[in-house]
Amino acid sequence: MAPLRGAKRRKRHPEKALPAGVTAPIPPPGATDWWDAFSRRLAAGHYSKDSQNFESVFKMSRKTFDYICSLISRDFSRKTQGFRNFRFGDKSILGLEDQVAVALLRLTTGEPLLSIGNRFGMNHSAISNITWKFIESLEDHAIIHLKWPDPEEMATIKAKFEKLQGLPNCCGAIDTTHILMCSSAQPNSNVWLDGENRNSMVLQAIVDADMRFRDVVSGWPGSLDDSCILRTSGFYKVCEKGTRLEGQMDLPGEAAGSVVREYIIGDTSYPLLPWLMTPYQERDLSPAKAEFNRRHKASRMVVHGAMARLKERWQVLKGELWRPDKHRLPRIIYACCLLTNIMIDLKDSEKDRTVAGHNHDVGYTQQFSDVADDGAVTQRDMICNYVSKLGSKLPL
User: Is the Cα dihedral 113, 116, 121, 126 positive or negative?
Assistant: First the structure.
């Protein structure tokens, strides 16, 4: 994963791979459940049926919540040593689960710090401190959930993409989305003004066939186009060096003898490169090229859906962020991507309940790039011919 632009480098702690069927420790019989007390605080003055339902409040299962707590528990305990404890309005000290819950409320609801603080009788600065401590801990301990696939994982991903729409040796889909923000209080705010006359920060993401984020980079202003952001990313650099997406595949059947290298897919805003396949743009496409474009577009829906669900689930990214810190915002975005992947990795049933379409950038016009590598043109034609000969064997 490429580093976040503007993010301060932090010491990483090695983590073990996610154990199969991981769950947080079960409280001993007779112990008071943390959620009973927290839900009463949450409902005080704001009662609703949803405030009594854990999944409705946090948009994740209790199993996932407990796992997140266990993942960062040592870090929270270490960081609170020597510092004053956070307290609710009734002077009760916030436990680990309380602090994680408060931070998640900020991310899932997008409510202002002051509003969340008023719910619990706390100063808005305390809510901010808790949220940032949570984000920093995720950056340290949840990194195992957002990484480029190893060869075994990649083989599974490529098989899923081929089963999806027949594209061979496809490793992922790339796209960008705009995170709107008010930049009027910042110097040089025009830098953040995008093509639609909105202040925004751009997130570039590559996802797999399960809508899992595999590489993200954010921090670039909305005034930059997709092609420029790609070329400044670490992902572009490693691909151009040949240290990523370098694997090759011999096409089977009638296409025997044709060799296709690994690649990702993107829309017309990206250049056509040996490792990045984009649609045909000429008019009056042949039936084979039209079919390739259709399959290509259908496969790209995974990244459109992932972006849309990211914004819908984590409301802090939806709408306009007021007076955002341009150095902190990329870390908020990254934390939301990590949390999304955790839900996917734990097979959280709540991950599919977020209702969202595939248009994650409403009001933005399609960009176009006319850059095309000669070798990439040849490879795209080979894939096009391969797909067209499969015909009715592919899903519609």
Answer: negative
Beta-carbon contacts of 386 under 8 Å, excluding residues fewer than 6 positions away, are 168, 251, 255, 258, 260
Torsion angle of alpha carbons 256, 260, 264, 269, nearest 10°?
-100
Length of the chain measured in residues: 396
Of 54-68, 69-83, 304-318, the poorest mean pLDDT is in: 69-83
* pLDDT exceeds 90 at position 278: yes
* CA–centroid distance for 149 within its chain: 15
Q: In angstroms, rounded to a whole number, what is the distance separating the alpha carbons of residues 51 and 226?
A: 40
Q: How far is CA 151 from CA 145, 213, 246, in A?
A: 16, 17, 11
Question: In the chain, what's the furthest Cα-to-Cα distance?
Answer: 74
Distance CA 277, CA 174 (A): 10
pTM for the whole thing?
A: 0.88
- Paired with 217 in beta bridges are 204
DSSP annotation of 319: S
